[in-house]
Amino acid sequence: xxxxxxxxxxxxxxxxxxxGHMDIIKRALKVFDEIIVAVADSNSKNPMFDAQKRVDxxxxxxxxxxxxxxxxxxxxxxxxxxxxxxxxIRGLRAVSDFEFELQMGYANSSLDKNIDTMYFMPTLQNAxxxxxxxxxxxxxxxxxxxxxxxxILEDIKCI
Length: 159
Fold this sequence. Notes:
- By secondary structure, this protein is an alpha/beta fold.
- The protein has one domain (7-157): Rossmann fold.
- 38% of the residues lie in helices and 18% in strands.
- It contains six helices and five strands; from the N terminus they run E-H-E-H-E-H-E-H-E-H-H.
- The protein has helices at residues 19-28, 51-61, 76-83, 95-111, 131-139, 153-157, and strands at residues 7-12, 34-40, 67-72, 87-91, 116-120.
- A five-stranded parallel sheet has the order 3-2-1-4-5, with helices on both faces.
- The chain is globular and about 45 Å long.
- The termini are far apart.
């Protein structure tokens, strides 16, 4: 009998993917066989990169890892159901993230009782890293080499 593969979804805008995201992905891969990085379309947030570019950046950053990136523009629980996944991964950088993430976890669970949310904390060195910090530094032509995977540096400098 073949072992059932455990998959989880890690959702977000990933605008762009950061070392903090990579930290969470690598931690989650210690628990799950495969991570689906669900890139939210999020046009309402006016992302710096379109959804396809963000998916491409995730693919580049996660080469060699059992990660599959896909964009979605539905409720996350509906996307999870389509993918046959019952666990959502979320990152917690600081106490300020906790209340929002807890509410989202409860909301998702209220929409589908089979959905669980698992929270991962990044290492201390990545606790302050966010896509919004990276975007702000990029806007002023600052260096983000310590904040994003080296595999995507050239792609995000060409904005």
